[in-house]
Amino acid sequence: MDEHGKSMKITIPASMTFSSILRDLIGSLIQNDTQFSSKWKHRIQLMADELINNAIEHGSSP
Questions:
Q1: So where are the chain's domains?
Q2: Fewer CB within 10 Å: C terminus or N terminus of the chain?
Q3: What angle do CA 17, 23, 19 make, to 5 degrees?
Q4: Which residues contact 39 (CB under 8 A, 6 or more apart)?
Q5: Residues 56, 60: Cα–Cα separation, whole Å
Q6: How far apart are CA 24 and CA 2, in angstroms?
């Protein structure tokens, strides 16, 4: 995170193997650092999972 605790940069290989690791990390961050309902936490995690998978599948070389 930056000095204000508001951003984080993570670099991973373009492999679906790492998708679950990022999903779990995002889940942990929103569980610990937000006041969203559990329904919205699940939605955010699902949305992030879709974005990560699409980036890996469509944004990398074959």
A1: 1-62
A2: C
A3: 20
A4: none
A5: 6
A6: 21
